Amino acid sequence: MLAPIEIHAPRTVPDASALLRQHGDEAAVYAGGTELLIVMKERLTPVNRLIDIKQIAGLREIAVDEDGTLTIGALATHREISRSPLVQQHSPYFSSLERIIANTRVRAAGTLGGNLCFAEPHSDPATLLSAVHATVRLESSDGSRELQTEEFFRGLLETDRRPDEIMTRIALPKLWETTGVSYQRFKTHERPVATVAAAVSVTGEVIDDARVFVGSVGPKPQRMTAVEDAIRGQQPGPALFQQAALLAGEAAEIDEEGFESADYKRHLVAVYVQKALQDASDNAKDRQL
Amino acid sequence: MSIETVPATTLPTELRTEITVETTVNGRAVTKQVEARRMLLDFIRDDLGLKGAKRSCDSQVCGACTVLIDGLPVSSCCTLAYEATGKQVTTIEGLSQNGVLDPVQEAFIEESAIQCGFCTPGMILAVKVLLEENPSPTREEIEQNLSSNLCRCTGYWNIIDAVERAAQRLREGDRK
Amino acid sequence: MTVGADIPRIDARPKAVGETKFVGDLIVPGMVYGKLIRSPFAAAKITRIDARAAKALPGVITVMTGDDVLDIDPYYGHAIKDRPLIAIDRVRFAGEPVVAIAAETPEIAADAAELVEIDYEPMEAVLSIDEALAENAPHLHVTELLRKGLFHGLGEFKLDPGNICYHHQFGRGELDAAFAEADIVVEGEYEFPAVYQYAMETHTTIAEWNTTGDAAGDEVTLHSNCQHPFLVRAEIADLFQLPVASVRIVVPWLGGGFGSKSYTKMEPITVALARKAKRPVRIQNSVDESMVTTRRHGMKAWMRTGARKDGTLLVREVRAWLDTGAYADNGPRVVATAADAAPGPYRWTAVDVNAWGVYTNTSPAGSYRAFGASHLGWIGEAQVDEIGRKCGLDGVQMRELNLLEPGEYVRPGGKPLDADLKGDIRKVAQNLDWDAPKPPNTGRGVSVGLLAAGAHPVSTAFVRMEADGKVVLYVSSTDMGQGARTVFSQIVAQELALTMDEVRVMGGDTQVTPYDRSTGASRSTTLAGMAVLRSGAELREQLFDIASQQLGLPPEALEMRDGAIWHEDESLTYPDLIKAHFGMVGGELIGRGEVRPERGSGSYAEGPVFWEVCIGGVELEVDPDTGKITLLKTASVADVGKAINPKQVETQEMGGLLQGIGNAIYEEMLFDPSSGQLTNGSLFDYHIPTMLDLPESHRSTIVENADGPGPYGAKGVGEGALAGAIAAVATALGDLGIDLHALPATPERVWRAQQAARGTQQADTNGTN
């Protein structure tokens, strides 16, 4: 049961930012509330002021820029994103992911910005967006800045966002024609055990670039540079991917907590990195057909 | 042996903790002053006396508290009553009109898709949304969509049959 | 004919429109809201409670601690009186209520809970069976001083010092000689997890303490979602020193039970808080609170089974330790029933079974759907298959060779087998396409077991026929979703040639509806149903007598149909008969029915009331990379004697089966090994089966041999499929060479067992090279 709260509904980003600065630890940005309210019901946080940013205009638009970048307002819900023809056309892999996040009710209320800012280690978009060079925009009364998703996540429930900053939009660059993307997850409970996102670019018969991120097993999405290095410049194939995936199993930082042992999670990481690499490279080839 | 204290905490006092919720529930306009922390589930159950939606997991996993806001399903146990402001809320009580049941409700009765009935109101509303968006769902689509509405009694088979029956009836109704 | 037909449930429509009221939907005038502060420590002394700030919060009515119940004997427990209704000076598990607050709103009660300061002096806790049984382990209770409860039903009652709350032993034949005769012996150690019933509706109780001021003294009224209202009534009367008739328990529809609401749970603390608050009080658990209110017993066991090389089973020896948590609850009965089921329905030369209930500093364990058959059934069945594999017989062949025949004794002194198990196992094999080729990584298994069902056979019912010829049925079985009230309506309609809409069934209310021992152990249709049948039959006789007088014909010349008594073309409707009998348009006829232990064969005296058949069939696929199980096919056989409502039998089977799948594959309560706190007390971390966990196909067969002791030869249903499913998952994994010694069959466990099996194969291959 929630403790007593006050709800503020600012109309502009600077107003919201000022409220956040004024109330410090007692205030939190409130959008869909799907994660925040659960924590507050447990009375595990000092937050008692919700800064509802849903009254701020212009934070839920989905559009494609002139340079081909897909921009998604931070307040767009998972449901809206999953049903957007623009997203489907521009980044079908992301559209598919948004269709399977949490459940139908959470998708109707939860926002992409909220999901990323909460920085729950099992966040599906956090891992996938890191792999495809997505960026996030943070705004405050002092102005705005743009940073790579990869840099945004600092640790467990921890991001680069200052307390008075508000995430306003997420941008997904247009992928090279040669790039395929795959997202894999292994789930036994509400939260997945291991998640893997891979973006693999195949030109001719050679992998010319790759980005591989592992989520859920550690505090934040982890880049698997060893895997990327091992496959770059090579010909895609099951043997290569199997070998490279083992490197991920070794390199990943594993949270010792949870139902599964660290050993088994490492094994799962390897299994799912291999699946993701294979699937991404198959997708890359399919796109070029 | 050391003593461990589970300490008391203090409650904040300088908050404006009351809000006014102006909303429409099952087609009826409602204005009520409530605490800002009031959850939508408590609002409809205790302030409005509509007891159909149920609290079970209290963490938006089980679906027993499902209601619709502007036609979309939400977990009312984890949604502030504040969110209903200016919106249309539909509860199970609003689904049947003047004693005439919705085809989804009829199908649940006919297929014996109800046992203890605690999940039923939420499940029926979830089915309602599913069939509005997808009038001919495959079995797999039904399972995917309703996998976040839990039932411990039925084993789900009859619920899936009820969804298929309701879908068929709604499609036939459309053609008439 | 209403019996044998797929009559729609009488409660379906009100449930579909959201009108059905559960306890949490009720508002008693003046009602306030209770909130419990529960211990974070598994074992600790409570040295100080400061609730001044909480009491001072506007809207708080009262704050209750252990000190407030010292004017009564505050210990309860239907088997063993070992539990104080609120912690007194010490706590024995993380989650035990220490402080109870009553306030005008649930929010104020929750706020007040934040203001209470409590000092604990942590003590050494025993958090597992091994820790509890270790030498020098601290004892939870002074067991030799514990008193027996009102319904212990366990014969002689004496506990040795230590953490054992019950020991059950039986055996027959010469064990050593039989093992000496065996060509094949398999043995192993096993573990079964603590699991939660997860009824969707949590425990909810409203208590009113009325100071009447009249000669009969104070009265207590409870609205509670309990399965056993009459047993709760007796315990509340005993605790608060009231006459039984001064305690009234009203039970509306329940949002699921599965054993979690059997016996006394939240009622004593709610009554005590209402007594102190002088206001009606509601206490409604959250899910995590209900999870530490009751659960299924975790277990460790050792079993060995011996057989001849032709597959003939000879001998079985079993030792099992069941973790009952901090308080016995129904632990002793669960221990005894689990032990009784351990040999399985086979012919043995010798058996020896020992089972113990063990106290630990974890949340209390009690009844859970199909208790008894679930704990050891899967282990016994896995060993039967293991022997089969060693002598070249498949699961069906092993069972055809060894299963008991109807009329053979399951246990000496008990009721002989009342079911055709070989026929059942053939049907389940057929439902599973037993002989079809299996794709890679696919395993197929069947299982069979028996559950001593029916509990104590005492039920009563009465039926009133009003002047308009319609009836009201009074019967106290709780309808927790299983459809009891629908089945009772069908029976009484059948007996009185009425239609379903001419029958109304009252909900349980101990001041209105007559005594029923309990709702559980698959007993409602069989026992309460028989009382209902007899009440209808008695009323029918009265109608025939009146008609016989009116028509001047012997009853044998008369016939009952369509709401009237007929002689050839002449008829008297029930309203006609009642009017004739009383001489006015008024009056009523009352039929009464009762079931109690009776002497003689086929009776309820020799125990159990009936043997519930547990049959399961599973075909599953294991992902060789991750160990994750996908269910392909499930099959069950509902051996029910007579299906009074076939559709409801089917849903009981499917629901029970999927709950069994949950027990077998997904569910396990985890207690932190250092703090003893439940670490997965929410649906985020405790997975109950969803639609995505359904098998690709399911086939169920209803067997109606009219061999049950209930109405029309019926026997209960609802538990067998659960136990059958657990065991069939184990045998299907065994078919793949995956020899699992602990459930649930999580991906990691299966993957490790697979790795171990591959290692063994590797070693075998290396050996032959």
Write the layout of secondary structure elements.
The complex is a heterotrimer of chains A (289), B (176) and C (769).
Chain A: E1 6-8, H1 13-23, E2 27-30, H2 36-41, E3 49-52, E4 62-64, E5 70-73, H3 78-82, H4 85-90, H5 92-99, H6 104-109, H7 112-118, H8 124-131, E6 135-140, E7 143-148, H9 149-152, E8 153-155, E9 158-159, E10 166-172, E11 179-187, E12 192-203, E13 206-215, E14 222-223, H10 225-231, H11 238-251, H12 262-288
Parallel strand pairs in A: 1-3, 2-3
Antiparallel strand pairs in A: 4-5, 5-10, 6-7, 6-10, 8-9, 11-12, 12-13, 13-14
Helix pairs in contact in A: 10-11, 11-12
Chain B: E1 4-6, E2 18-25, E3 28-35, H1 40-47, E4 66-69, E5 72-75, E6 88-90, H2 103-110, H3 120-133, H4 139-146, H5 157-175
Chain C: H1 12-16, E1 32-38, E2 44-50, H2 52-56, E3 60-64, E4 75-76, E5 80-81, E6 83-84, E7 90-91, E8 97-103, H3 106-113, E9 117-122, H4 129-133, E10 147-148, E11 164-172, H5 175-181, E12 184-192, E13 204-210, E14 219-224, H6 229-239, E15 247-251, H7 267-277, E16 281-284, H8 287-291, E17 298-307, E18 313-325, H9 331-341, E19 350-359, H10 373-391, H11 395-402, H12 421-431, E20 442-453, E21 459-465, E22 471-475, H13 484-496, E23 503-505, E24 508-509, H14 524-551, E25 559-561, E26 564-567, E27 570-573, H15 574-582, E28 589-595, E29 610-622, E30 629-639, H16 646-666, E31 697-703, H17 720-735, H18 747-768
Parallel strand pairs in C: 1-16, 14-15, 18-19, 22-23, 30-31
Antiparallel strand pairs in C: 1-8, 2-7, 2-9, 3-8, 4-6, 5-10, 11-19, 12-17, 13-14, 13-16, 15-24, 17-18, 20-29, 21-22, 21-28, 25-26, 26-27, 29-30
